[in-house]
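name: query_chain
kind: protein
chains: 1
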Amino acid sequence: MIVRVMNEAGYNEAMLGLSLSFNKEITPKVARKLYSRGDEESKFLRQMMVWLDVTAPWRWWKQMAEYRIGMEWNIESQSSSTMHTVMRRHLAQGDFDCDVPDDYLQAINDLIDVKDFDGVTSYLPGSYLYRRILTTNYQTLRRIVGQRHLHRLKDWRYFIKEIMDQLRHQEFLVDVRTEFDASLASGGE
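structure:
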């Protein structure tokens, strides 16, 4: 799995919008106090946008689809769409996040040779890697961290570690980050 924060925007604009709500300048300390009260008090985090470049196995993308509210990805033009790419070449071990038995891989490649798209997509394992560009915001990422930091699928813990290490305003994830760091120290289970 590869996770890269490509860009962030909207911090100053979110702080200005928050200031308008209270008719006074908001300090980062006040903003942190508000976000710690939950989603309704942290609406300003929706204006802090984040663009991610993620290459992850299909099994993870299926779960990530639960976060479609507050997140956008264009499957056709901004991802490695199966429809447009899987038949272009033989697949190799590097197309998966773990080793696939050689005979299984050969069976998929045989289906590619005979242009059997339905067969190929039916045989692709959950470890098949897809790359997508995601557009999201701090509130959605905060929700993901809070809900998935103890998840048994190791891909979630890796995703969370990467975004938390790369985001510029980690202070808005500090309460969930403390929990996440503690879970890593205890083995993450």
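note: The beta strands are 2-9, 49-57, 72-73, 129-137.
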